[in-house]
Amino acid sequence: MKLKFLGTGTSQGVPVIGCTCEVCTSENSKDKRFRSSVMITTEESRKILIDCGPDFREQMLLNHENNVDIALLTHEHNDHVIGLDDMRPLIFKSGKNMPLYCNSRVGQEIKKRFPYAFADERYPGAPAFDLHEIENKPFHVLDTEITPIEVTHYKIMVLGYKFKNLAYITDANFISDTEKEKLQNLDVLVLNCIRKFDPHPAHFVLPDVIALFKELKPKKLFLTHISHHLGLHDIEDKDLPEGMHLAYDGLEIEF
């Protein structure tokens, strides 16, 4: 299986509009970050998208991706779901509704933000989604076992997802001991890290991630959901502990 980072930035992306800091003005492509999303390619070449933010259209075009079989949603914040309308060409091409997997709270929010996708009589050109409610227990889809991981993002519960010996977690500032049991001795752990020092009420910062790396002992840990406050990619990446890496848009890993 493969994971490709379609986006590794925060809700504002990098560069941030109007910002002239050294990260936002960097010419290094690794310092330019779309909103966070990944594409999983299964062993049967099926495509599983995790989150669909406002950059979805451009992410698909730049990465030469032309299909999504299902989408997994971590939570309902706009930087993770507001691109769902741009799935229309894929829906029209397949002639089928797009399956969305999420918890019940997120499903209700999707219906509120895209009511036209669920209307009994949709206007021509509207998208169409099939919502599949999931709980915090493993499920199978596309011949793949997927294990949800419940994490806390300020005051809401967000789902991470585990495939084989890889786990992807975004938008978290707390993981319970029970959920950490799912994350022991992974080959790859992907974890959000919004900035370098100052504590954040809803996201891990670098000292938190380093502590989790030492506790959970994955073979490799990739940082995502990165803001311009973390620093320049080439400088910060080489200063990380061995086995830790800054993810960047377009990076693809096998697992």
Briefly characterize the structure.
With 255 residues, the protein is an alpha/beta fold. The chain has helices at residues 56-62, 78-81, 88-94, 104-113, 177-180, 206-216, 233-238; strands spanning 2-7, 37-41, 47-50, 70-72, 98-102, 129-133, 139-141, 144-153, 156-163, 166-169, 188-192, 220-224, 244-246, 252-254. This is MBL fold metallo-hydrolase.
Radius of gyration: 18 Å
Tell me the CATH superfamily: Ribonuclease Z/Hydroxyacylglutathione hydrolase-like
**Beta-strand residue percentage:** 25-35%
- Cα end-to-end separation: 6 Å
Q: Describe the biggest sheet?
A: 7 strands, mixed
How would you explain this protein's 3D organization?
It is built from 7 helices and 14 strands. Strand 10, helix 5 and strand 11 form a beta-alpha-beta unit. The strands form 2 sheets. Strands 6-5-4-3-2-1-14 form a 7-stranded mixed β-sheet. A 7-stranded mixed β-sheet has the order 7-8-9-10-11-12-13. 40% of the residues are buried. The longest helix is centred in the last third of the chain and has 11 residues, at 206-216. It has one domain (2-254): 4-Layer Sandwich (Metallo-beta-lactamase, Chain A), CATH 3.60.15. Helices cover 19% and strands 27% of the residues. The mean pLDDT is 98.
List keywords for this structure.
7-stranded mixed sheet; Metallo-beta-lactamase, Chain A; Metallo-B-lactamas; alpha/beta; MBL fold metallo-hydrolase; 255 residues; single chain; globular; 7 helices; hydrolase; RibonucZ/Hydroxyglut_hydro; 19% helix
